Amino acid sequence: MTKITAFLPCRKGSQRVINKNTRKFCGIDGGLTKIKITQLIETPSIDKIIVSTDDEKVKQICFEQLIRSSKEFEILDRPSHLAASNTSTDDVIKYINEIIKEITDILWTHVTSPFVDETIYEQAINEFKKNQSQFDSLMSVTKVQKYLWDESGNAINYNRSIEKWPPTQSLPELYEVNSAIFIANIEIYRQYFDRIGVNPFLFKTDEFVSKDIDWEEDFKIAEAQWKNNQKNTGEC
Description:
Blueprint: E1 4-10, H1 31-41, E2 46-53, H2 56-66, E3 72-77, H3 89-99, E4 105-108, H4 118-130, E5 137-144, E6 174-185, H5 186-192, E7 200-204, H6 216-232
Parallel strand pairs: 1-2, 1-4, 2-3, 5-7
Antiparallel strand pairs: 4-6, 5-6
Helix pairs in contact: 1-2
């Protein structure tokens, strides 16, 4: 069996949410970084974890958790040219080809998806393995079945000359890439310079699970959701 390597890029200096990766989240010291690294450690099928960061606090949080786990791990200094706010994801993909030389499946994820936990990761890995004869990679998506218009004022996913407001359930199912999970073998990265291949499996997650923290209000909403989830599970 090809081993699974989790890749966690974590850039310092968010402009929209100050210190979002490491500030307290729901009272948790280490915040989103500690939550995510714990989830990856607790995912049974993940063999190795690589953290790429230019943030010393992220390094410390990750090291404190990983040193106590049985997982292989590397905490790498992220090159300065890959740590700018305008860094292209394409350049980070090329960087993976530089740092990973062995044959492995790569699970790329982010700390900003705190509700994608070890159960979800394990499900995604199992779906990837189960469907490898038909699909060359996997990415998580969220279904969008709403009225969509372009900025010119035209409906783009239904025909208003036929029906002005069709039932939303009759609209075509479209899928937003939520960037919570990408899985592909290192050979995909080498061949296509991409984190997915030409035929990815669409791993569907709902809006709650795939919540991405990109703005300050996202951070506050996610904290409220996290607290509510803990309350419902009897953990707080």
